[in-house]
Amino acid sequence: MLFLLISVFIFVAIALYVPKRLEKHELYPIALFSIVIGFTSDIIFDLKYDVYGYFTPGVQFLGFLPILVLFPTSGVIYMNFYPYKKPLQHQFSYILAWTLFSLTYEHFSIKAGFFYHNGWTYLYSAIAYPLLLVMQLQHLKYYRKYIKK
């Protein structure tokens, strides 16, 4: 629980206080998309298949903290520092670094007891994280092209 609360504080502080490279109107769709992806994946993999979850099986109020705070703040941080104009090698390396960070954070979340695996493995996460990160990029690309005018 302490790890989760410290994480919430750190992620929020970073998301709020780092210099923004994104436009202000892009922060909301990035955060909202992160929340939607978080709830969607957790409904499927936690509630439907019970392969992972927060604290104990089922829905807990504290289980909303990662989805409503950690996911959107990490999405904003990830997108804020993404090397959009760098070569593909840099972009790939950035996604790989975030995947490694996410796997490490997942490991410590399990050790701290606020997240658990129940058939889920780090290999599944290693496959899922890059896909989710690319989805986040595609969402912002779509937003910039079709929504923002």
Per-chain topology:
Elements: H1 2-17, H2 24-48, E1 52-54, H3 64-80, H4 88-112, E2 115-117, H5 122-147
Antiparallel strand pairs: 1-2
Describe the structure.
By secondary structure, the chain is mainly α. It has one domain. The chain is 73% helix and 4% strand. The chain is built from five helices and two strands. It has a two-stranded antiparallel ribbon. Helix 1 (2-17) packs parallel to helix 3 (64-80) and helix 2 (24-48) crosses helix 3 (64-80). The longest helix is centred in the last third of the chain and has 26 residues, at 122-147. The chain is globular. The mean pLDDT is 95.
Index terms:
149 residues; mainly alpha; two-stranded antiparallel ribbon; 2 strands; globular
Structure summarized in a few sentences:
This protein has one domain.
